[in-house]
Amino acid sequence: MLNLPNMSANILMTPHQIALTFLSISMKDIFDIVIVAICIYLVLLFIKQTRSNFILIAIVILFGINFISQEFDLGLTRRIFEPLLTFFIAIFIIVFQPEIRKFFKWISAGRKTTFAKALSLHEENAETIVRSVFEMAKKRVGAIIVLPGQYPLDDLIEGGFPLDGKISMPLILSIFDSSSPGHDGAVLIEGSRIKMFGLHLPLAREFSEYNRVGTRHRATAGITEKTDALAIAVSEERGEVSISQNGKLTKVNTPEELATIIQKFTDTEGDASESTKGLTHYLLVKNSYAKITAILLSIVFWFFLVHTVGIVKNTYSVPVEFKYLKADQAISANSPSTVKVTITGSNKDIAGLKTEDIHAVIDASEFKVGQNNINIDKSNIKLPAYIELDSFTPKNLQIITKPVTN
Questions:
Q1: How far apart are CA 107 and CA 126, in angstroms?
Q2: Whether residue 91 is found in the same domain as residue 176
Q3: CA diameter of the chain
Q4: CA separation, residue 270 to residues 120, 263, 265, 266 (Å)
Q5: Residue 9 lies in a domain
């Protein structure tokens, strides 16, 4: 029968016990929690910007399985997943290298370029886009128009022709005319300019959802599945207008509806000033939910991985080690031959500690032949970084050396 640990004693606490727990938090614990919260916050931003929710799912599953295997002493599961967690960072970097590169590129860009250009779309330009889209729908002309958001698109779009042309209905209609070399691609609009046309976009991952639509609509959904852009698609077969955000296609029935969607997306009056404040403002002021989540998770981790584990004190008898002993000398006797070292640390850290991880090291470079009286201090005791030295005895050693004869 499986002997399960009594977890309810740690989880079910009275209000008084909870108050005592928080009162017992030291400045060291607060600093510890803040560091973990910052790391979690950056991970949440990474997932948000790269739209890689499956990364979060993978992390939760791996650490969840490891936690369960530790708590319930599942030997086989622990032996399999502990090495996997050891190499998890390397696996994470290899598998998600494109997403990591895009995230750091977004960070280094300072979040100032594409967002500002999207926000600068004037009302008359938006009206021109709406009229052009519904004119193409009326004539059954297929088209894709992409309006970028905060996330850079450079690593996702391919091909295309640079244009940098002023937004106008004749220009848009001519681009998607069947005689145009780029009519099968997408148009990228930034601010008041048509930056490029004939672009190839990534296809949506959820193929089953788009079985009834063509490649154009899958590409429209694909670019918004990976970024926060707004994409507009015109169906050549049905003469319908659709928009895509967050990887989801939605049919648009009227020009007024499309104009409202574009206005809400650009939101020039509400967010234009936000785009100029840069990355620091975005990290410190925005993302309230991510900050709260990061703080709560770090507190939960601290409670279960540090507080409930408890602090343990243990004493070890460690043999005295000598370094830098002269070649013409040898240790004939040392009294005592061991040092008793008392250490403190978490129960989990102490349980995994071995005697050979603790060292009492004496510098023998100044030893003379005969009796040497040595005073030792904390610098002579070598411990793992996560273990604290409580005390040690004795403080004095008598070491006798003799000459080495050939």
A1: 29
A2: no
A3: 105
A4: 12, 11, 11, 9
A5: no
Q: Which helix (H) or strand (E) holds 187?
A: strand 186-190
**Which residue range(s) make up the domain with 212?**
115-273
Structure tokens at 73: 């002493």
Contact 241, 89 (CB under 8 A): no
- Residue type at position 329: Q
13: which residues sit within 8 A by CB, 6+ positions away? Answer: 21
Show Cβ contacts of residue 96 under 8 Å, excluding neighbours closer than 6 positions.
Answer: 52, 55
Report residue 273 as tokens. Answer: 């000033």
| Cα gap 247→279, rounded to integer Å | 25
Last residue of a domain, one of 273, 294, 323: 273
Same-domain status, 269 and 284: no
**The CATH number of the domain where 332 resides is what?**
2.170.120.30
pLDDT in tens, the chain (406 residues): 333 344 434 444 456 555 655 666 778 778 888 999 988 888 887 777 666 666 677 777 877 787 787 777 777 777 777 777 767 767 777 777 766 776 676 666 554 444 444 445 788 888 999 999 999 999 999 999 999 887 777 777 888 888 888 999 999 999 998 888 888 889 999 877 898 999 988 888 665 555 566 788 888 888 888 778 899 999 888 889 999 988 888 899 999 999 999 888 876 444 444 444 555 666 777 778 888 988 988 888 877 777 666 677 888 999 999 999 998 899 988 888 899 999 887 776 777 788 888 999 999 999 999 999 999 999 999 998 878 888 999 999 999 999 987 6
Say what the pTM is.
0.51
231 within 8 A of 244, measured Cβ to Cβ: yes
Q: Tell me the angle at which helices 27-50 and 288-302 cross, rounded to the nearest 10 degrees.
A: 130
φ and ψ of 374, to 5 deg? -120, 130
Q: Please give the structure tokens belonging to residue 70.
A: 């530790």
Say if 1 falls within a structural domain: no
- Report residue 266 as tokens: 């650009």
Please report, for the chain, how many H helices and E strands are present, in that order. Answer: 16, 15
Which burial class, exposed, middle or buried, applies to 264 when counting CB atoms under 10 A from its CB (0-12, 13-18, 19+)? exposed
The DSSP-derived string for 46-115 is HHHHHT-HHHHHHHHHHHHHHHHHHHTT-HHHHHHHHHHHHTHHHHHHHHTHHHHHHHHHHHHTTT-SHH
**Contact, 343 vs 387, CB < 8 A?**
yes
Q: Are residues 68 and 5 in contact, defined by beta-carbon separation less than 8 angstroms?
A: no
**Helix, coil or strand: residue 64:** helix
